[in-house]
Amino acid sequence: MVDLEVRAKMQETNHPEFSNVSDQSIPTFPPVSADQKGIPRLGLGTASEGPLGASVEIVKEAILQAIKHGYRHFDTAPIYQTEKLLGEAISDALRLGLIKSRDELFITSKLWCSDAHHDRVLPALQKTLNNLKLEYLDLYLIHWPVSVRSGDQYELPIKKEDIVPIDPKSVWEAMEQCEELGLTKSIGVSNFSCKKLQTILSTAKIPPVVNQVEMNPMWQQKKLRKFCEEKGIRIMAYSPLGAANRVMECELLKEIAQAKGKSIAQVCLRWAYEEGVCVLVKSFNKERMKENLDIFNWKLSREESHKISLLPQRKGFTGEGFISDDGPYKSLEQLWDGEI
Ligand code: A2P
Fold this sequence. Notes:
Bound molecules: adenosine-2'-5'-diphosphate
Domain NADP-dependent oxidoreductase: 41-308
Strand content: 5-15%
Mean pLDDT: 90
Protein name: Non-functional NADPH-dependent codeinone reductase 2-like
Number of strands: 10
Pfam family, one: Aldo_ket_red
Oligomer: single chain
Helix content: 25-40%
Organism: Durio zibethinus
Binding site for substrate: 143
CATH superfamily: NADP-dependent oxidoreductase domain
Number of helices: 13
Largest sheet: 8 strands, parallel, barrel
Structural class: alpha/beta
């Protein structure tokens, strides 16, 4: 790790390590209101498998590299244990002059299930902001349509006996209060089916702006996307490379990638971008992070998109851990309201 002061000097003197600070601009969705930013259509996910442990420095350094290479949208959550690291990377980026102001970034975090109770929402957001050392989030999401018995439970797997029904109305009211207090510029949900979104919409004063869900060529979410489009809700695609449903091994995507001189990952990301969603891709590897940015100046042909649209579908993240005999969801069918 290079010391911060040394880094700043390297940057001032145009050292090769910092000579290609990218101006690569990532397309954004138009802002919903005057005090919100447009959502950058590609963001860096920060969820990683297993405990972060010794990789803490790697994650922080990766986020700093991402900012250097032009990423401006970052997605975190208490359960990922990356909020503090993202906060430190943002502070470093400001000190190094990689960005002039925090306002250049779009930052999303999420309400974990053990905080999905009316009275715990605001304190949870305050804790998140404290972790990030930020005054506001750009987007705050209900992470899952699930509540876990109150208590500081930020670990997986969740104890089955602690899973209780979420009260969508009162939790959403508390989310609205967070936006009204200016602690987040916008609010939304994650892993919600059409039916569960409709429940929120039926009482919401402020409708959710985003539903963040798994989406990749092998889990295309056609029904949910149509519903969200009709309701003016943006889809944010997580797991666009489908690590959990082996998208990178798909023969069709391999063929398309070869024909285009692109990687399978780039084909997946371009596909999601062309489908009109915002894509969150996680990589802590500098080369892959750069590779994932190179999706804006080429296109899939109509035939390629059509072939992708016919791929057999298989969900990667089922949410099995939220299913319990005595809890609100006794089967995956119930959790996803049949959308599985
Ligand atoms: P890494 O951080 O080592 O790059 P998913 O879309 O399902 O969340 O997949 C994320 C996984 O894909 C991560 O393990 C990440 O590993 C890997 N990954 C990210 N970008 C690429 C890429 N361009 N090529 C291959 N693997 C990638």
